[in-house]
Design brief:
Layout: E1 7-11, E2 15-20, E3 23-28, H1 37-54, E4 58-62, H2 72-81, H3 83-88, E5 93-97, H4 102-113, E6 119-123, H5 126-134
Parallel strand pairs: 3-4, 4-5, 5-6
Antiparallel strand pairs: 1-2, 2-3
Length: about 140
Amino acid sequence: MEQEQPEVLYQSKYLRITKNKDIIEYHWTEETVNFTEKEYKSEHMVIGDISEKYNIEKHLVDTLKFRFIITPEYQNWINDNLFPRLVKSGTKKLAFVVPEYIFPQVSIEQTMEQEAAFQTQYFDNLEAGRKWLAE
């Protein structure tokens, strides 16, 4: 049986967003090491736009190649500008596939600890995250 190809919703040098059935996936690239503040915020606004457009409950965030350090200021910005949009669009579950690098992993986890409006789990591979979302 042939596996269905995900629909590409957005592509930049930092981020590729795809939709596969009832899951939206966000795949960050190593180019995030070069993020400016403006680009960081702009890419996250795209995430909010897509979330609101598709109203999908399940999201998989692939941060294996994410290289940007999320400071407390950026965490607060995400809490104020992205999370309310995710909640409004019906997000119920977020699966994070985390990188080996300790600082980006910790900063991503700290960001998510501040938002309890949806279930969040961390995984070390994409398939485990997808399996949890399918439950």
